[in-house]
Write a structure and sequence with these properties.
4-stranded antiparallel sheet; 478 residues; alpha+beta; 12 strands; 17% strand
Length: 478
């Protein structure tokens, strides 16, 4: 940690220097991630120099973080470098030693810390993630037309060796394959005007939550800036993750959970007779119980309505804010719900001082074949791989991303009632040991459900450093 931080803030200059998709999202339809190896150092440096200085006909420009307004570019191009990538470009040993240890070790060596074992273990990851020492850069192209992705990839391939390609797309209505509306609650940063969050009602986070060199929410503290400032300042870190989502298995488990609950002695406390009509339009009792389980596991109904402020219906009248709420002492939202684990807000937890210090910016798109949770064939399992190409951005991987993954999602250190259980959606669960406690109204206790498998499995990834444009120029001139 450093106590010397940048106090003066010229937000326009910062946004011009920071790479795009960090302070505000692109909201494009398509993405292509390229896993690159630096095999010609001179060519790689020349490419980075041109890209950081506006690009050319042969080299795409690095997209800065400035708001482009109505002048939407045909595509956006950004890069993240692994520790091995910095070495390959010629960064000195002295400078490399100033980067955090979790970044220098890389995602594969931190696998146990973040729950990547069993089917998620790195030794089961496909190429190119089976040779992490060769993955030097993860380059990301965002666009609305596939032709733009092809054009930029062809330009990049002239300077780097392309080890692998991953394409993603938005599913529409902001949803993921599990059927939930996603990316509702994102950090908002002081001084940053983000039109995509104009109606959000969230606390404002300091720039040091996401950028190196600025104050954090911890008093008088900031995360260490790698040496020199030209390389480290205005940079960010990213946990790039390929996460397979077992959508079919999830829907089948909801069926099984509803079957179990229909026979449970306390089912009328969880869902009073006739209340299924209030839960959602057109739902019978079995379908309503499925949606209650899904809502409590996540912390939101699948349409995005917070369970905390609307525990009896997914369609409250009047509407409730999707972001303006907190967890009360009498909360109906389970302490073990995914959303509550990942962002406890101001709720009372054991690690109370940490509640607002581990915020992550989430950027991601889905990959794989379509799956409709409202219309699928239960008799013919569709277990084709599909999931999320996720980016989890922060200023410190250890204090933010790894702490959330380990302490909160996979250990449950928020409160003794969930310690020893895993997050029901993202956790490293096994059917033999999994448990989730559904809450009953009026403090009537809980109903425990068991037997759910791991629904999200890692299929690759890398820790990357997202350098500023100043830093990319610095790297090009080594």
């Amino acid at each position: 940690m450093n106590k010397q931080v940048k106090k003066d803030v010229d937000i326009d200059a910062i946004e011009r220097d920071v790479q795009g998709n960090i302070l505000r999202s692109y909201s494009r339809h398509l993405v292509r991630h390229l896993m690159l190896e630096v095999t010609n150092v001179a060519a790689a440096r020349r490419f980075l120099g041109v890209a950081a200085n506006g690009g050319s006909e042969a080299v795409p420009a690095i997209t800065p973080g400035s708001d482009w307004g109505k002048a939407k570019p045909p595509s956006n191009f950004n890069i993240g470098l692994t520790f091995e990538g910095l070495k390959a470009l010629g960064v000195s040993r002295r400078t490399l030693q100033t980067f955090p240890v979790e970044f220098s070790q890389g995602m594969t060596k931190r696998a146990m810390k973040i729950g990547d074992f069993g089917d998620s273990a790195p030794d089961k990851w496909p190429a190119p993630f089976d040779t992490p020492e060769k993955v030097h850069i993860v380059a990301s192209i965002h666009a609305d037309e596939e032709g733009q992705l092809d054009k930029v990839e062809a330009q990049v391939a002239k300077a780097f060796t392309v080890l692998g390609v991953r394409d993603g797309r938005g599913l529409g209505r902001g949803k993921v394959f599990f059927g939930y509306k996603d990316s509702i609650s994102q950090p908002r940063f002081k001084w940053v005007k983000d039109r995509t969050q104009a109606t959000a009602d969230e606390p404002l986070d300091p720039l040091g939550t996401i950028l190196l060199g600025y104050p954090t929410s911890m008093e008088d503290m900031s995360f260490r800036v790698p040496y020199p400032d030209a390389l480290g300042l205005n940079g960010s870190f990213n946990a790039f993750r390929i996460l397979a989502q077992a959508s079919y298995d999830y829907e089948i488990y909801l069926d099984e959970a509803a079957d179990f609950l229909l026979k449970h002695k306390d089912v009328d406390l969880l869902l009073p007779p006739g209340a299924e009509k209030k839960v959602g339009k057109g739902l019978d009792r079995h379908a309503a119980l499925r949606e209650i389980v899904a809502a409590q596991m996540c912390g939101r109904w699948r349409n995005g309505t917070p369970y905390e402020t609307s525990p009896d219906t997914m369609d409250p009248d009047p509407d409730v804010s999707p972001t303006n709420f907190d967890y009360s002492a009498q909360s109906r939202c389970p302490a073990g719900a995914h959303m509550r684990r990942a962002n406890p807000r101001g709720g009372h937890i054991v690690q109370r001082i940490a509640t607002y210090t581990r915020r992550l910016v989430r950027r991601g798109m889905s990959y794989g074949p379509d799956f409709d949770p409202d219309d699928f064939d239960r008799k013919n399992p569709d277990r084709r791989e599909r999931g999320l190409l996720g980016n989890f951005l922060c200023a410190n991987l250890g204090a933010q991303f790894e702490a959330v993954m380990c302490d909160w999602l996979n250990v449950g250190l928020q409160t003794p009632s969930i310690t020893g259980t895993n997050d029901p959606l993202l956790g490293a669960n096994t059917a033999e040991t999994s448990r989730f406690d559904l809450t009953l109204p009026d403090n009537a206790g809980t109903i425990s459900i068991y037997g759910f498998p791991r629904f999200v499995t890692a299929r690759g990834g890398a820790y990357t450093f997202l350098p500023s444009l100043t830093a990319i120029r610095y790297l090009s001139e080594l």
